């Protein structure tokens, strides 16, 4: 299936150059909006309105929603006011808001001018909610029922008003604007008797979010409770909208991308990789690189202050990268595991002692195992194979002891910093590899030189 | 809402110790299956069957599905065969399969013995599909319609048979077991005329997966096309089942966790963090730690071979951690960005030249910026503030030049290795921070000593 759109795309390109518009139309009506949008992304901007006009009204609007924002903009600029009005009539409010948010001011004005007053009002309301809140991703179009309606009435109402709703499968039972229950279309259809009242079959164990709930939490709740849509209420518990599962899936994807970017020491970006210019990428990458580079001054200072020890035992220098990297890797393993567990709501600040104790035991196992392995490696490779006379058994012991202690420190730092960050209200993802590595580098060097000065003769 | 289950949990614990079972029942029937399962997880194993028997049949089965597998096992061992049969009667096939997959053999035998023959057959069929394939996560219970049925007939059939189906909202139109179209309940309900035939309103632009499609791809397609359920077909295009959106959301979460674990140098684990013992964690973490530690031998060798240069210019050693870390961070930024773009299907191997060229330009910007910053830092902090006489302007120039070149190398390595891994059929996530860091460490040292020997007098 994935290859389907690619080959059709080529066919359509050829047909377009041959101006066979009827054939193009016949092909496109069999296609899915997401695939049509993919075809549009390969077409020159001037030809977009031409292709777009070939589509039936509803499919045109659905494909428009799936397009990239720069192409939406080009298309809006290329079509007439009445055509734009037709598109706006077909859009759901939440999709319209997504589009408005990406457009420059003059295009936004044209969009709002061509929306009907009801929609214009709803777009403006949603635009006022904070970014990434449930309010900003919800739609205000949902099926409302009253508690004293019969099942038959409810089905009739859905048949009459459902066409404009993004989902009809969960209906919301309101009493004086307050949400009192939900009814699924499944339970309406399967109800044994059409004369039963809604309040006798509705589900009253309500799961709601408020307009200010973070979108990530909204998506997690929908996943936890397997919901097709979640109701959004205001501060007075009055129902204002719903968030649907397709938006929740998009939110999950975006939040993961953001977490991964932060964990790799980048400020998060809204643009896809191929759409980002080198200057965009530079701006998102340089802050952390610069900060971490400057913090490496401390590691430099530690080395400088042990310069004489290093000059006396040059062999010690060769093990610095291995000790720092192993420490960094150990710490990242713990921090990434804990960051992910926090974002899946598996861990809470009160678990900190339990987590640290678990990490210490894990670190002890890893530390002993790697220290033994490292000792064997040094003896076999560096001493026997490479005949490096500087590396005595005592030097090997210093390196392996440092290794074990560093791993324990690294895992404690790695697991506790993300939890502390969360507690203090920061994003735990900041406490991932790059940050942990910088701290662990300094720690491992201090341990290394401390042990070396204590054990090796002539270094004190 | 998130706190709701916590406080109710405490109330229920108290009521349980006071043996107020009617009150417990009254509270639990108002609750959601996921929250009931959370309450169960805090209860002693012996009391589980007691609590479970308080629940109405359907809610009991729904809560059972949401429980952790060790508790499901304890519960199955604590209830009678006829009670188990009642639970199995209420389960959907895909949930039953998930449970069977986690249980030891003797429990599986009891489960299968208490399932009806139809379900037993379907469980066995699904169990035969490879792990993580669409076949292994699908359910075989969906609504089947024929193309020549009327809309009225179709609604009647849904009302008669829908109770056993996981979703009734998308119905599948089969002609001789071949999938020919889909109809949503929305379009059935909104059809202007009950006598229209299904084939006149069905959607024939089919999006399907095969039983062997990877579950990650299934979830991505559902997200891309905003599907509630996706049909699964066999090699001969005959329909065998559907994957529903709730399973797709779970798959997305699991796959992200797996990617993050691999990217932090761990082998992926099925257990949650708090359920993993230190020995479990050790087993998942030690392979990469050991491998990366041994590969650091190369960096050690490079330092050893430049030992004399280092002895002559001890100041050079102090900058090794900063150069290695900055290189590692730059490389990780590129690799993580590219890995994520690959897993979102934004990048393809044919984009490699474009990606490398973009990274080179980004790296040049980062490199120049950091080199200038680093030069200022060395001059101000190390020379002026710390009065370190060893660090000459020439040494600073060597460090900064190395910095710029290392960043460019690191970003090229970081962006191209994940794409190469994908091309060769490996998981690109392996090419993240730990692996890239090890390679970049060696590269940065080679560049460093190469430039130092070329520019600094007395090192040749």
Q: Outline of this structure?
A:
The first copy, chain A, is mainly alpha-helical and about 450 residues long. Chain A has helices spanning about 5-15, 20-30, 35-40, 50-55, 55-65, 70-80, 80-90, 95-100, 105-115, 115-125, 135, 150-160, 185-190, 200, 215-225, 245-265, 280-295, 295-305, 305-310, 320-345, 350-385, 395-425, 435-455; strands at about 145, 170-175, 180-185, 210, 230-235, 240-245. Chain A folds into three domains: about 5-130, MgtE N-terminal domain-like (MgtE N-terminal fold), CATH 1.25.60.10; about 145-255, CBS-domain (Roll), CATH 3.10.580; about 295-455, Tetracycline Repressor, domain 2, CATH 1.10.357.20.
If you had to describe this structure to a student in words, what would you say it looks like?
Two copies of one chain form a homodimer. With 460 residues, chain A is mainly α. Chain A has three domains: 4-128, MgtE N-terminal domain-like (MgtE N-terminal fold, Alpha Horseshoe), CATH 1.25.60.10; 144-254, CBS-domain (Roll), CATH 3.10.580.10; 296-455, Tetracycline Repressor, domain 2, CATH 1.10.357. Helices cover 65% and strands 6% of the residues of chain A. Chain A has 23 helices and six strands. In chain A, strands 1-2-3 form a three-stranded mixed beta sheet. In chain A, strands 4-5-6 form a three-stranded mixed beta sheet. In chain A, helix 5 packs across helix 7 (81-90). The first copy, chain A, is elongated. The termini of chain A are far apart. The interface between A and B is large, with 121 and 121 residues.
């Amino acid at each position: 299936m994935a290859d389907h759109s690619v080959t059709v795309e080529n066919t359509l390109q050829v047909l377009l150059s041959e101006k066979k518009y009827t054939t193009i139309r016949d092909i496109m009506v069999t296609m899915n909006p997401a695939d049509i949008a993919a075809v549009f992304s390969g077409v020159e901007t001037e030809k977009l309105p031409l292709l777009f006009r070939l589509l039936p009204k509803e499919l045109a609007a659905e494909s428009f929603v799936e397009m990239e924002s720069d192409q939406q903009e080009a298309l809006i600029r290329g079509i007439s006011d009445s055509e734009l009005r037709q598109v706006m009539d077909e859009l759901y409010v939440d999709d319209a808001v997504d589009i408005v948010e990406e457009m420059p001011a003059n295009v936004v004005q044209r969009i709002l001018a061509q929306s009907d007053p009801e929609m214009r009002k709803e777009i403006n309301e949603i635009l006022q909610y904070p970014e990434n809140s449930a309010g900003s991703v919800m739609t205000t179009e949902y099926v409302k029922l009253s508690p004293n309606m019969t099942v038959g009435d409810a089905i009739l109402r859905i048949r009459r008003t459902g066409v404009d709703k993004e989902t009809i499968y969960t209906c919301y039972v309101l009493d004086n604007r307050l949400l009192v229950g939900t009814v699924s279309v499944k339970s309406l259809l399967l109800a044994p008797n059409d004369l039963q009242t809604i309040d006798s079959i509705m589900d009253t164990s309500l799961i709601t979010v408020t307009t200010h709930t973070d979108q990530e939490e909204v998506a997690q709740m929908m996943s936890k409770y397997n919901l097709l849509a979640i109701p959004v209420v205001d501060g007075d518990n009055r129902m204002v909208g719903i968030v649907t599962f397709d938006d929740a899936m998009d939110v999950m994807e975006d939040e993961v991308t953001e977490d991964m970017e932060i964990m790799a020491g980048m400020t998060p970006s809204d643009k896809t990789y191929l759409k980002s210019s080198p200057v965009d990428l530079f701006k998102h990458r340089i802050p952390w690189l610069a900060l971490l580079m400057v913090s490496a001054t401390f590691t430099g200072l530690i080395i400088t202050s042990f310069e004489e020890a290093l000059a006396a035992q040059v062999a010690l220098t060769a093990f610095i990268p291995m000790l720092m990297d192993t420490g960094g890797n150990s710490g990242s393993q713990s921090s990434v595991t804990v960051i992910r567990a926090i974002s899946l709501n598996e861990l809470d600040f009160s678990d900190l002692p339990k987590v640290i104790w678990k990490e210490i035991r894990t670190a002890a196992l890893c530390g002993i195992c790697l220290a033994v392995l490292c000792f064997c490696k040094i003896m076999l490779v560096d001493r026997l194979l490479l005949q490096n006379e500087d590396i005595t058994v005592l030097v090997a012991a210093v390196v392996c002891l440092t290794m074990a202690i560093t791993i324990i420190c690294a895992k404690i730092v790695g697991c506790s910093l993300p939890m502390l960050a969360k507690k203090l209200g920061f994003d735990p993802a900041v406490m991932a590899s790059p940050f942990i590595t910088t701290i662990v580098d300094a720690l491992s060097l201090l341990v290394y030189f401390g042990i070396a000065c204590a054990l090796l003769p002539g270094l004190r």
